[in-house]
């Protein structure tokens, strides 16, 4: 009797869990849906009372406006600044992490100092950096912003990559060295393939951190290299918010993140949890 | 030989950049904080602790610290709780779990400015869906000016914040929960222990380290909260939702109180250092 009942009970529990999962997912994704939907609406539909939950038709004029007025340059700026800075941070950070992990360069002190750099609150350094950048003429240029994002991502890259590199068995490297490979070849041919998943996850996060930054970009850009979050805040103005522009720009600024995250999905969960567990 | 110098050569670029962009501005800022540079005056003579003494008389500064504390104290436990409940929902295997997890991560990776902007559109009193949904359930028109009305600005900020970061807690807790010793759970089930007892005796001790680290990460982020508030309320109405980061920004970039801003920065750094050290100490004690 009992044995016969169990599958039915299990099926009921599973159904309830799917229901719960569905409701939770709907709740969390509804704002994202709302954002995307507004970006497809006509002005009449956006300013309709009561709000419409489904646009009459999918039309792209809100996006067209962004391209026509050159607002999308902000996305391009974001791509350049985030892409280049995370590339540099990954290369320099991984090399540094390798040295810390394998040679113990600078001892535990150097490692601690580098990791503690991440604790510095941006708001505490953004003003002196602004003053220094004004003095050096680096405000509103690619170089200044790239340098800054590189510096702010380095501690993260070094901490994460040091963890991944320590996990690579030392014997592998030693036997490669015995086989006559030099250090560079060992790093490139032995260590790199082993830490590739970690490197992928770390790259995505550094890109996302730089992409999502607002404070530094707000302070250090004026007109030339405005990034997309700063551009977005330009549309908030007193009574008249340009809703169509806000929505379309938000979607354009969110798509690269969604693409990066979904392509790298299998690496990310591990990356997030490892980063937190290892502290 | 190159091979001998290699360890230092490959550390050097990263360390150099960190010194240049991380440490140098801090030292510069420390010097400035003992001077008296304002928008109108470029007085580089040293005035000792004058700016730091000023901090204690600045009521708006302490109010902003209070706002920051309120937001942190409410949002952090909420994020933890919501994240935990979500993790409980998805802890057992179910077909398609990966897809749900992938979708639920999305709010966390969105730019906080976009999150704030999205909720600003959602909260809008006439064209946003929140009022519409509330009106539907209330059975009468509900008109709440979420981002302007003093009674609702904090709930608005916290809803947005919890929406964005609960999924982060969820991911961490999901990983932690799946590492809980299954044999202990099964043994407890056979003994007929209640869920609350299992939670207290087995699950919570097992996930405590991850919870502590997650709270530390999120707590530090919450103390520095800037973007979401900038997008939702810009610190308003008045300076009602002005957090310490927003206040520092205003002092630096609207008032151009260079030296005073530097002093505030060091207050913030000191506070964060104290909090972090205390939390880490407690975590070590717990071990």
Automatic annotation (TrEMBL), chain A:
Which keywords accompany this UniProt record?
Answer: Cell membrane, Membrane, Sugar transport, Transmembrane, Transmembrane helix, Transport
Q: Report the locations given in the UniProt record.
A: Cell membrane
Note the topology in the membrane: Multi-pass membrane protein
Give the chief site where it resides. Answer: membrane
Domain spans labelled ABC transmembrane type-1: 75-264
What function does the entry list? Part of the ABC transporter complex MalEFGK involved in maltose/maltodextrin import. Probably responsible for the translocation of the substrate across the membrane.
What family does the database annotate? Answer: Belongs to the binding-protein-dependent transport system permease family. MalFG subfamily.
What name does this protein carry? Answer: Maltose/maltodextrin transport system permease protein MalG
What organism does the UniProt record list as the source?
Bradyrhizobium agreste
Automatic annotation (TrEMBL), chain B:
Q: Which residues form the signal peptide?
A: none
Q: How does it sit in the membrane?
A: Multi-pass membrane protein
State the coiled-coil residue ranges. none
User: Mind telling me which Pfam families this protein's record contains?
Assistant: BPD_transp_1 (PF00528)
Q: Has UniProt tagged this entry with the keyword Acetylation?
A: no
Spell out the subcellular localization from the entry: Cell membrane
Say yes or no: keyword Iron present: no
Q: Where do the ABC transmembrane type-1 domain residues begin and end?
A: 65-279
Question: Where does this chain mainly localize?
Answer: membrane
- Keywords of this entry: Cell membrane, Membrane, Transmembrane, Transmembrane helix, Transport
Report the transmembrane regions from the record: 7-31, 61-87, 99-119, 152-177, 198-220, 260-280
| Source organism superkingdom | Bacteria
Q: Which PANTHER family match?
A: BLR7065 PROTEIN, SPERMIDINE_PUTRESCINE TRANSPORT SYSTEM PERMEASE PROTEIN
Q: Which family does it belong to?
A: Belongs to the binding-protein-dependent transport system permease family.
Q: What is this protein called?
A: Sugar ABC transporter permease
The species this protein belongs to is Bradyrhizobium agreste
